[in-house]
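Re: weekly structure request thread

Next one in the queue (148 aa):
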Amino acid sequence: MSGGEVAGILVAVFWAILVSFLAVALVRLAQTLRATTKLVADVTERAVPLLADASEAVRSAQTQIDRVDAIASDVQEVTSNASALSTTVASTFGGPLVKVAAFGYGVRRALSRGDAAPGAPRDSRRTVIVGRTLPAEGRASRTKRKRD
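Done, posted below.
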């Protein structure tokens, strides 16, 4: 065998080894692609129901938000109505009630002064000394003496 034939055999052996490695790599790549395809199919099979459930949850949440919004607007309307009602009641009954109270106070004061002489100042306190009641004038002169 000549050198060219040996070189040709060596190139053919290396070429066969290279083709074998490439064939093994292609077989493994094909297995990986099959596993990836199966994984994607499984994910798709499980994701579709999950997406449907998520979509239903979002719709339900939107419905609840719409209800809460309606309730909040109703509460706001009730609050403004209650505020207007309290303002109306205060303005309607507030002034007359103050006048009635002032009138009642005046009547009580007038009735409590009913037994005194007209125009005379009334001192409702009296001094009791051993079973005797002193008139208010006598007491006033005594308090003046004590103060001096």
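The chain has a mean pLDDT of 83. Residues 3-112 form the longest helix (110 residues).
Next request, please.
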